[in-house]
Amino acid sequence: MPIVRPRLCLLLAALAAAPVHAQAVNPLGGDTLAPQERAAGAVPAPAQSRGKLEPDAASGGVVFTDEAGWYRFVMANGGTTSRDGAMRIFQFESGGQKAACLTISMANNAFAKFTMEQIQAELDTLYAPFDAAVTANNGTTILERRSLTLDATGQRNAAPLRVLAWDTRDKDGNLLTYTLAPLPAGQLLFACGVGSASHAREIIQRYLRIAEGGLVPAK
């Protein structure tokens, strides 16, 4: 991950068309309810939907299902996705602002012997091993480390999973939020740049879902 991290940071900053350090307002702020109870783990990732961007009846937007079934990501209508090497790029509008997110799936057996319940119970102890990857790009500063709880599909008050999250500022002043989900299948890095850390966090909380493929232990 330290090898791809600087390139990911540069791409993310370039894709966020507006100068993100100049946008102080989170237009989604306060709209997501605080999680109240835990829901059952990962969402389905139907084989026929994997690798496709499809209409999403639940949100009225579109949803992309990862080729390996590790995650699903919802965007507003007009959102697009493409690949750049190992990275998948998402570009869309959120709250009237242009947003960009990037993701990399790293398949390995680092957590293969653990259940999701075990990983979740120890999640906050895992920041130190991954801090170096987040700061691998010279000039990047970590502003805050604080885990993020993903909403449950169809249940705005339920909490299926938490992910590690870092709010950062690069040497050009761009605010970028990185999340990492340790999974039995490997690690899912998901990063967004949209103008403020709270806005980026809310996008990830609302629209990223860990899916069933990520729970299949790597061999």
Keywords, separated by commas or semicolons:
single chain; 219 residues; alpha+beta; four-stranded antiparallel β-sheet; 14 strands; globular; disordered N terminus
Gyration radius, to the nearest Å?
16 Å
The proportion of strand residues reads 35-45%
Structural class assignment: alpha+beta
Count of distinct structural domains: 1
Output mean pLDDT.
Answer: 80
Succession of helices and strands:
HEEEEEEEHHEEEEEEHE
Uncertain spans: 1-6, 15-28, 30-40
State the helicity in percent bands: 10-25%
Shape: globular
Tell me the total number of β-strands.
14
**Total count of helical runs of at least 4 residues:** 4
Termini, distance in Å? 20 Å
Q: Quick one: biggest sheet?
A: 8 strands, antiparallel
Structural features, described:
The protein is α+β, with helices and mostly antiparallel strands. It has one domain (5-24, 33-215). It has helices at 5-15, 116-121, 127-134, 197-207; strands at residues 37-38, 53-56, 61-65, 71-75, 80-84, 87-94, 97-107, 141-145, 148-150, 158-159, 161-169, 175-183, 186-193, 208-210. The strands form 3 sheets. Strands 5, 6, 7, 8, 9, 11, 12 and 13 form an 8-stranded antiparallel sheet that branches. Strands 2-3-4-14 form a 4-stranded antiparallel sheet. Strand 11 (161-169) and strand 12 (175-183) form a beta hairpin. The longest helix is centred in the first third of the chain and has 11 residues, at 5-15. The radius of gyration is 16 Å and the shape is globular. The model is unreliable at 1-6, 15-28 and 30-40 (pLDDT under 50).
